[in-house]
Amino acid sequence: MPDDKQPPRRSRRWFQFGLSTLMLVTLLAAVLVAWQRERLSLWVESLWPARAAEPVKDPRDPRQVVLDFLDAAHNQGCQGGLSSPQAASGVGQ
């Protein structure tokens, strides 16, 4: 049995390159990005959703807002717009 068998050679991959080539491509990309910095900044900002407007503060007292809401809900419920818990359960029929 002869021992002169050599292991099979690997075929070269397509994207093999040296470290210096990688550094050169990185440098070129950095120069291009720095050159177009303002344009890229505007483009990235346009991708973010628009900011919501600040909510307007209600000058009324929070307690009064709740009381007004409950009063409006009660008045609407009396007109048949909202069902009361008693009406939904069938109490009083």
Architecture overview:
Helices cover 54% and strands 0% of the residues. By secondary structure, the chain is an all-alpha fold. It has a domain at 17-48. The protein is elongated. The termini are far apart.
Question: How is the secondary structure organized here?
Answer:
Blueprint: H1 19-35, H2 37-47, H3 62-78, H4 85-89
Summarize the structure.
The protein is mainly α and 93 residues long. The chain has helices at residues 19-35, 37-47, 62-78, 85-89.
Question: How would you describe this structure in keywords?
Answer:
mainly alpha, 93 residues, 4 helices, 54% helix
Mean pLDDT: 80
Indicate the proportion of strand residues.
Answer: under 5%
Helix-strand makeup class: mainly alpha
- Apparent shape: elongated
Q: Can you summarize the main beta sheet?
A: none
Number of beta-strand segments: 0
Give helix and strand order, one letter per element, not per position: HHHH
Radius of gyration: 37 Å
Work out the helicity level.
40-55%
Number of helices: 4
User: Which parts are unreliable, with pLDDT below 50 for 5 consecutive residues or more?
Assistant: none
User: Distance between the terminal alpha carbons, to the nearest Å?
Assistant: 105 Å
